[in-house]
Amino acid sequence: xxxxxxxxxxxxxxxxxxxxxxxxxxxxxxxxxxxxxxxxxxxxxxxxxxxxxxxxxxxxxxxxxxxxxxxxxxxxxxxx
Length: 80
What we know:
By secondary structure, the protein is mainly α.
């Protein structure tokens, strides 16, 4: 999350979004700007926020493929 939220990494994050979600650059930029507030700054990721963001991107018709949260989120690395 720190990497994604760091403005210095924006271009790389946009590139990853474009490749992984098969989006055009403008759509990836808008989607990232829309999703960033739903991402947790510290601690566990806001899963409900991510689900909401995905639903909104689908509703805006900029998502070209189905996103499976199990493939998108990996909580194995959280400290126990």
